[in-house]
Amino acid sequence: MKKRLFFGVLIIFVAWSFTSCENLFQKCKLCKTVTYENGVVINETDEVEYCGADLIKKEATPPVTIGNITTKVECH
Prior knowledge:
By secondary structure, the protein is an alpha+beta fold. The chain has 2 helices and 5 strands; from the N terminus they run H-E-E-E-H-E-E. Strands 1, 2, 3, 4 and 5 form a 5-stranded antiparallel sheet that branches.
């Protein structure tokens, strides 16, 4: 019984460790800041690659609108 319990815990731990490593190392995107005026692009920055926590932070950045000009981060 102890061997089965140990084996079950081991399988769960291995599955969890592979999943967490996959998310840290493979989730990367290219992001750029784009400025729109009335829905038309008027300026954009060069794309930069972000991964992991930096990517989450970048994607969580809300758009900023002043008058009819909106600046936002776009990632793909």
